[in-house]
Structures are given as C-alpha cells and as structure tokens.
Design a protein that fits this description.
The structure is a single chain. With 106 residues, the chain is mostly beta strands. It has a single domain (6-105), classed as Pnp Oxidase, Chain A (Roll). Helices cover 14% and strands 50% of the residues. Strands 1, 2, 3, 4, 5 and 6 form a six-stranded antiparallel sheet that branches. The longest helix is centred in the first third of the chain and has 8 residues, at 21-28. The chain is elongated, with a radius of gyration of 16 Å.
C-alpha cells in the first residue's frame, strides 16, 4: 500500500491492489488502525488512529485519487480492475509525545 493520497478531515485515502489480502480482510471486517510518526533527533511523536476502512471500486473515487505514475503499478490505467481505493474514516486517535498520551475523539 502506498502513502496516503488524500486527507480530508478524519478521512484518509490510500490506493492498493484489489487482489491484495488486505482488501479481502477489510471486506470481511472493516475495523482498521493506522499509525503515523515523526522521529526527530530529540523527540518522537506518533498518532494511532482507530476507525473503519471502506474498499472503493467505483470509477469516480478511483479517478479522484489516481496519479499519473500509478500506471507503473496498474498497467490498464485508472480502469484497471486490480486498482482500488481504501477510504479510512477515523473515529478515535491516540497521540504520543514526550512519554505522554492523549486520546482524541474525532
């Protein structure tokens, strides 16, 4: 799975292969967690976001998220049946910094 393509409020969009195991898992159980971090010289920050993942195969969503270089991964282009978009909707987040955590409802 590639880095997020779009972040809109508590919705985060990724691209992946429709044939991947993670797509099969999300179709069976849409619960998901994603983690972002920044590691500096003296400080580590991280956020774990818990939510739900939706597998989007509709053409409008695929076109919205598509980038020119994606053809390297999806030979048939934006209409490739093995190209899909994962839309994550965050519900809660846990932020970590300086040995402290803070829970945030999204």
């Amino acid at each position: 799975m590639l880095a997020p393509r779009k972040i809109d409020g508590n919705e985060i969009y990724f691209t992946t292969n429709t044939s991947s195991n993670k797509v099969k898992q999300y179709l069976a159980n849409n619960k998901a967690c994603i983690y972002f971090y920044k590691r500096g010289k003296f400080k580590y920050q991280g956020v774990s976001v818990i939510g739900e993942m939706q597998v989007c195969t509709d053409q409008a969503t695929k076109e919205e998220i598509w980038r020119f270089g994606d053809k390297m991964f999806y030979k048939q282009g934006v209409t490739d049946p093995d190209y899909c978009v994962l839309k994550f909707r965050g519900i809660t987040a846990e932020y970590y910094c300086d040995f402290k955590t803070e829970t945030i409802e999204l």
